[in-house]
Amino acid sequence: MFSDADLEVLARPPAAYQRYTAAIAEEYSHLPQKDFAAGRSQILQALLDKEQIFATPLGLQRWEASARANLSQEIEQLSRWS
């Protein structure tokens, strides 16, 4: 349940999710942009490759679809940095 609550950020509305990803990019701004994009994309793809991101029925119902959409969109954006 705690894990689902922690991952909820992945399912936020697009503008809120973009603010979250901008903060992560800022945190790793010391890395070359293409290295950050490659590493971040691997993490996101690992989440997408899971059968389900959220462990609880409530998490699956409320957040799974929007989290998957956000992660896919971010991977697409990161691919432009390579």
Which features does this protein show?
single chain, 82 residues, mainly alpha, 73% helix, 0% strand
Structure characterization notes:
This protein has 82 residues and is mainly alpha-helical. Helices cover 73% and strands 0% of the residues. The chain is built from four helices and no strands. It has helices at 2-7, 14-27, 33-49, 57-79. Helix 3 runs antiparallel to helix 4. The chain is elongated and about 40 Å long. The relative contact order is 0.20. The mean pLDDT is 95.
The biggest beta sheet, please?
Answer: none
Give the topology string: H per helix, E per strand. Answer: HHHH
Structural class: mainly alpha
Roughly how much helix do the residues carry, as a percent range?
A: over 70%
Beta-strand content bin: under 5%
Distance between the ends: 35 Å
SS elements, strand count: 0
Radius of gyration: 13 Å
How much is the average pLDDT? Answer: 95
Low-confidence stretches: none
Shape: elongated
Number of helices: 4
